[in-house]
Specification:
By secondary structure, this protein is an alpha/beta fold. It has a domain of 83 residues: 2-Layer Sandwich (Nucleotidyltransferase, domain 5), CATH 3.30.420. The chain has a 5-stranded mixed beta sheet with strand order 3-2-1-4-5. Helix 3 crosses helix 4.
Amino acid sequence: MGMQVGESKGGAMAEMNVVPLIDILLVLLIIFMVITPLTPKGLDTLVPQPNPNQKQDVELENKTVVVQVLTNGKVKINNEDSTWDNLGPRIEQIFKDRAEKIAFVKGDSDVLFGEVARAIDIMRGSGIDKVGLITAKLEAGQ
């Protein structure tokens, strides 16, 4: 409560009471301090890290589908020779009974990205939900 005592030359003078405004400011400051730690700061992710000493599980190896794009224009599905025309139907046949439709594409180092993109496009057209890319560094565990 602010009040000015004394004589004023111009008559009555109004003053703004800032004490309630400071109270409101402090309440808002406390509210924002409580809310700030609750806001998400990013996305939590789990990235698989290859372990070079661990032997690969045979069942996991059978579930994994890798399409290799070779430099001579050939395509392999899990080391089985295939053709570009046969890639889509073969992928559909492999994944018709699987719930998780995840496959990987591995391109040779000299293959143009257009060929890898073509394989990805055929796989997505065959109903694959997620397509991952395998690189030489990923295979080496780096």
